[in-house]
Amino acid sequence: MRDIHHLVDGSSFTGGSGRFGDVFNPNTGEVQARVQLATEGEVDRAVQSAQAAFEEWSTVNPQRRARVMFEFKRLVEANMNELAELLSSEHGKVIADSKGDIQRGLEVIEFACGIPHVLKGEYTQGAGPGIDVYSMRQPLGVVAGITPFNFPAMIPMWMFGVAIAVGNTFILKPSERDPSVPVRLGELMLEAGAPKGVLNVVHGDKTAVDAILTHPLVRAVSFVGSSDIAHYVYRTGAEHGKRVQAMGGAKNHGIVLPDADMDQVIKDLTGAAYGSAGERCMALPVVVPVGQRTADELRERLVSEIPTLKVGVSTDAEAHYGPVVNAA
After folding, report:
1. What confidence score (pLDDT) does residue 214 get?
2. What is the pLDDT of residue 285?
3. Is 281 a catalytic residue?
4. Separation of alpha carbons 182 and 247, rounded Å
5. Fewer beta carbons within 10 Å, N or C terminal of the chain?
6. Are 68 and 192 in contact (CB under 8 A)?
7. What kind of architecture, by CATH, is found in domain 2-248?
8. Average pLDDT, integer, range 284-306
């Protein structure tokens, strides 16, 4: 049985909790690996590494930090096929969706490549009688991201890309359902030139989450997941003096107007509702057609279109979507 380890202080770290989570092969339902679940002390070890790295990383000039982002982007693109296959093997989404997952993350890394300009402050002379106003943008310190299973590449890159580029160091606690791609991204960040401790990946459940939310050295936390857990993360983090952004329970809704291009509507709705087996925020579980005629046409077209969709294993190039991540 393959064990998936933490990535702490620039190297693979074997935890000692003795607790593991099962990582399934969604195509068969069989357990393909075990992921280690961190103790509070192991989270602290990662935070201490990030704090030590912050002292140097925060003083590196923005241009040099941006060069690390450029190289990280190049490495992710060079390893796109490997990352997509690894992602599909644990999540179950088809390869094309996995590549889209990675590419959407890279869009934010591209933004982070231009961080020297974004970091510029402002200065206003004469804002009031004898008053000048200026602002500076400075890194906070150790920050953390708690990310969901449905986009194991995109959402971590959305979080750590900008955070690291501006001079913070980062603790990533990815979903224990599909943890291998986040570890691989951490390895590529090291290969791109980030010093050890700048990006640490720690696996875990509520124990690890609570350790992050209550740790005095973690200055800010970003979360994506269910609404109930988002409330918990925001409340607990705020109680411990952290900046928190908690995004929970996102599901888009759609409105179809009478003058809509119905061919495009059907294409968009079937792709949104069934792509990635509906495991994404854009899944559109509710669609509101305006007017009875619009509703009748929409229903008739959808009912005839749905049987043409093909479900298959994640490696099937002809499949529109693969299995859900696990039976639960």
Report:
1. 98
2. 83
3. yes
4. 19
5. C
6. yes
7. 3-Layer(aba) Sandwich (3.40)
8. 93
CA 224 to the chain's CA centroid: 8
Query: What pLDDT was estimated at residue 250?
Result: 78
Helix (H) or strand (E) holding 182: helix 180-191
Domain boundaries, the chain: 2-248, 253-308
Instruction: Enter the tokens of residue 25.
Output: 């092969």
251 contacts: CB under 8 Å, gap ≥ 6: 281, 283, 284, 285, 286
Per-residue pLDDT, 277: 93
- Measured CA to CA, the distance from residue 151 to residue 90 in angstroms comes to 11
What is the pLDDT confidence band of residue 252, given thresholds at 50, 70 and 90? Answer: confident
How many residues would you count in the chain?
328
Nearest Cα residue to 66 out of 118, 137, 139, 116? 116
pLDDT computed for residue 1 by the predictor:
86
Both tokens of 87, joined, read 């992602």
pLDDT-derived band at 57, boundaries 50, 70, 90:
very high
Residue among 139, 181, 190, 186 at smallest CA distance from 164: 139
Q: Give the Å distances, CA to CA, from 241 to 164, 193, 213, 273.
A: 21, 32, 9, 39
Terminal alpha carbon distance of the chain: 21
Q: Which residue has the tokens 């900008």?
A: 162
Instruction: Tell me which of 281, 295, 302, 324 is the catalytic residue.
Output: 281
Structure tokens at 243: 């900046």
* Inter-residue long-range contacts of 183-190, CB under 8 Å, 24+ positions, other chains counted: 183/4, 183/5, 183/7, 184/79, 184/82, 184/83, 184/86, 185/76, 185/83, 185/153, 185/156, 185/157, 186/7, 187/7, 188/72, 188/75, 188/76, 188/79, 189/68, 189/72, 189/160, 189/164, 190/10
- The tokens for 190 are 């090291």
